[in-house]
Write a structure and sequence with these properties.
The structure holds 2 protein chains of 2 kinds. Chain A contains 11 helices and 27 strands. By secondary structure, chain A is of the alpha+beta class. In chain A, the strands form 5 sheets. In chain A, strands 20, 21, 22, 23, 24, 25, 26 and 27 form an 8-stranded mixed sheet that branches. Chain A has a 7-stranded mixed sheet with strand order 6-9-3-4-5-2-10. In chain A, β7 and β8 form a beta hairpin. Chain A starts with 14 loop residues before the first helix and ends with a helix. Chain B folds into 2 domains: 43 residues, no CATH class; 170 residues, no CATH class. The longest helix of chain B is centred in the middle third of the chain and has 30 residues. Chain B starts with 10 loop residues before the first strand and ends with a helix. The chains are: A alpha+beta, B mainly alpha.
């Protein structure tokens, strides 16, 4: 027998009970009761105790039950649906939803999409999360993953996959979601900043690739997309706090992927940030010491992503505009990508070199398309570019072909202010405005050689020969006249001198023969003169050859 | 068929010293004491119907969370699995262990609810002073009383597992909330069965027989 049953347990000790016992005994003594009664004692009647406490038990049970129901009701959050490509590893009733490794929900059902294009996972989430379920909230399945960047989700090998949640308070409240196929690189809880980079080519950059600052990983590549026009790629990088403060308005980003090999005098130098970056690709940034003041990054700033660290030394792309240059001289060594410089400072590059015939004059010219950054030429923001450049052209700004490297024959376009340049102006033509050019300035040696050749060229060797010829002829005439004079005076003046004069004549005749056009001396002289002319010609040829193939100075003629 | 031709008088027996005594008929509900040893004496189990009803209600309330909440969580190689009674049975059936599943189903699901229902029926029949098949009802009560403790099998299984399977991350079994409620259901139904007095089944008949005898 159990249960609270102690009503009147203290009975035997109470005086009243003693009285009753006495009563019973007196009953027995009196003997008036029937036999049955005399043999059998009568039970003692006690006072009724408190109402039964047994009802407390269902009350407690009900209280606990109600409390549990209330607790469950407050804990049960909304039911959500998440779409995934596949339900690999997701099991109804097993797979949990986790945030920061805390269980925040449970998958209740896994079903197929209406058009069988994916799976729909129905899950219940805890109430705490209800306020964080917006269209910005992201879900993805965490499975064990081995990639170049590392091994992640190893714990799921044993525990099974789970759905990770990246809650967000921003955006509209939502109950249906599209799950991510790949874990997001940056979860919303991480402090840091996103930056936008513009690149011509994506290169080997992957989502999740590291972002380095002095080869220290400070962030990750969050994503990339083709720009609307399709002519560049926009890369989003996330830089974790506090390193995001290192990114300033003058910071330069470059693609740090792969190997950067340089051959130097002291051997081969290979520069790569890490094996992960080598395989995954990566982005590095640095804030160089520049003349311009490094300020805060404006919110809509797009950084240029340079293809390599070297390229960051080149001009930064801000506003770029294209111009056309016409050259009459040889552009050998000038190709697309050749630098455009102003007194040695790069301001742009050559986009295209072509050959064009002027339909009006039939003249063949060489148009060169260049892309320059007028801001580097001092153009103020908001100022009219053509008007500004027009003023500079008036002051003598001209484009010339310059030889960068005498050995490799690389040439560039150089801008400079030329004193005494012929008046010119910008021709605003289609497709690009035409900037005036000046004839090429030769590099020191080329120029000097050319000057020597020019000087040698200027020596009038032929006329010297002709003059000599004429002088000799005149001498011969004089001698004839002298002879005639002598002839007339022969008989009259000095017959005795005749013989000597005859002798002189014969001498002169022999001298005449000596200097006659068909004489050996004259022929030799002529040969000398022509040799000299020949030498001058080959010197000119050499200089021309050197002009086009300066490398032959070192390597010798190849053909 | 006639039941209980003998009319029991207004007597009571001391549960401690087994002294049979006369109980005063004028106040049938009054608490009595044994004139020999002083223990509490009752003609019938005190407040039998009320207590049984209270225990049954409590058991019924506990039955809900006992089935909704998992009774144990088994962790095997990091894969945690929470099982309620029903999901455990379903798991046993799915893995082909249907005899074992049946045993668990009967012991853990059918028996508690059958006990609650049959005891509830007994209480109701006594309240309604029913004269319907008293012998079968008494037999039902005996079965309920006999079978009651076997419902604890589930609780024992869980306790043994918890004690035995303690291999850290490799395998681990933890008791969950549901097991507490399940144990409460079993204990409460046992209490309910204990507090029910089967003599009440016959009281109605006795009264009428007695009336017949007196008249």
């Amino acid at each position: 027998m159990s249960g609270p049953d102690d009503d009147g347990r203290d009975g035997p000790r109470s005086g009243r009970d003693e009285d009753r016992r006495g009563e019973a005994r007196s009953d027995r003594r009196s003997g008036v009761t029937v036999v049955e009664n005399a043999m059998m004692p009568e039970a003692l009647v006690r006072a009724r105790a408190m109402p039964s406490v047994v009802w407390l038990i269902p009350l407690v049970a009900a209280f606990v039950g109600l409390y549990l129901a209330y607790w469950a009701w407050t804990q049960t959050g909304p039911t959500i649906t998440i779409r995934f490509e596949s339900a690999e590893g997701v099991e109804a009733g097993r797979t949990m939803l986790k945030y920061k490794d805390v269980k925040v929900g449970l998958v209740e059902a896994v079903g197929l999409d209406e058009d069988l294009s994916g799976v729909v996972v129905t899950a219940s989430v805890v109430n705490d999360l209800a306020g964080y379920l917006t269209d910005q909230t992201r879900f993805w399945v965490v499975r064990a993953q081995v990639s170049a960047g590392g091994i992640t989700g190893l714990e799921t090998v044993f525990s099974g996959a789970y759905i990770a949640v990246d809650p967000s308070k921003e955006g509209r409240s939502a109950r249906a979601f599209d799950g991510l196929e790949k874990p997001p690189v940056v979860t919303s809880g991480k402090p840091g900043k996103y930056f936008r980079l513009r690149a011509d080519e994506l290169g080997s950059i992957e989502v999740g690739a590291p972002v380095y600052y002095r080869w220290l990983q400070v962030g990750r590549v969050a994503g990339y997309e083709l720009s609307e026009s399709g002519d560049s790629v926009e890369v989003q990088v996330f830089v974790e706090a506090p390193h995001d403060e290192r990114v300033r308005s003058t910071t330069r980003f470059w693609n740090a992927s792969g190997l950067d090999a340089t051959v130097r005098a002291d051997g081969l130098e290979i520069d790569t940030p890490s094996l992960a970056a080598f395989l995954l690709g990566g982005v590095a940034f640095e804030t160089p010491a520049t003349v311009s003041v490094a300020g805060e990054v404006p919110p809509d700033m797009v950084f240029e992503l340079y293809p390599n660290k070297q390229a960051t030394k080149r001009p930064r792309s801000k506003g770029r505009s294209r111009y056309l240059l016409y050259f009459d001289e040889s552009v050998a060594g000038l190709g697309a990508g050749a630098p455009v410089e102003f007194r040695g400072i790069p301001i742009g590059e050559v986009e295209d070199v072509d050959l064009a015939v002027d339909p009006d004059s039939g003249e063949i010219r060489i148009p060169v398309v260049i892309e320059i950054e007028p801001e580097r030429l001092g153009l103020a923001k908001g100022e009219d570019e053509l008007a500004y450049l027009g003023r500079q052209v008036e002051r003598g700004l001209r484009a010339r072909i310059a030889t960068d490297n005498l050995l490799t024959g690389q040439r560039s376009i150089g801008f400079d202010f030329l004193d005494g340049a012929a008046k010119a102006e910008i021709l605003n033509a289609a497709p690009y405005p035409v900037l005036p050019t000046a004839s090429g300035s030769f590099d020191a040696i080329t120029e000097r050689v050319a000057r020597i050749v020019e000087k040698v060229d200027r020596v009038p060797i032929e006329s010297i020969g002709e003059n000599l010829d004429a002088s000799l002829a005149r001498l011969s005439d004089v001698l004839v006249e002298v002879q005639q004079l002598a002839g007339t005076t022969h008989r009259e003046v000095l017959p005795g001198i005749v013989s000597s004069l005859e002798k002189l004549e014969s001498t002169l005749e022999s001298a005449d023969g000596l200097i006659a056009p068909d004489s050996a001396l004259a022929q030799e002289l002529e040969r000398l003169v022509s040799d000299l002319a020949e030498a001058a010609r080959s010197l000119r040829l050499l200089s021309e050859r050197l002009e086009t193939h300066p490398e032959e100075l070192l390597r010798g003629r190849r053909d | 068929m006639r039941y209980s031709p003998l009319v029991g008088g207004p007597h009571a027996q001391c549960p401690v010293c087994r002294l049979v005594m006369k109980a005063p008929e004028e106040r049938p509900d009054a608490p009595l004491g044994c004139p020999r040893c002083g223990a509490s004496v009752h003609r019938r189990k005190p407040e039998s119907l009320a207590r049984t009803t209270a225990y049954l209600v409590a058991a019924l309330i506990c039955y809900v969370p006992a089935n909704l909440y998992p009774i144990m969580r088994s962790t095997s190689l990091g894969r945690a699995q929470e099982d309620t009674i029903v999901s455990g049975v379903a798991y046993l059936y799915h893995s082909g262990m249907w005899p074992l599943g049946t045993i668990v189903l009967i012991a853990s699901v059918v028996v508690p609810i059958a006990k609650i229902v049959s005891l509830g029926g007994l209480v109701a029949s006594v309240r309604r002073r029913s004269r319907w098949r008293p012998r079968d009802r008494a037999a039902t009560y005996r079965i309920v009383e006999l079978v009651g403790r076997w419902s604890m099998v589930d609780v024992y299984v869980v306790t043994i597992l918890v004690a035995l399977v303690h291999l850290g991350t490799l395998a681990n079994v933890e008791v969950m909330f549901g097991a507490v409620f399940f144990a409460a259901v079993v204990v409460l139904t046992i209490l309910a069965a204990e507090s029910f007095d089967p003599r009440l089944i016959w009281d109605v008949l006795e009264e009428e027989e007695g009336r017949d005898v007196r008249t």
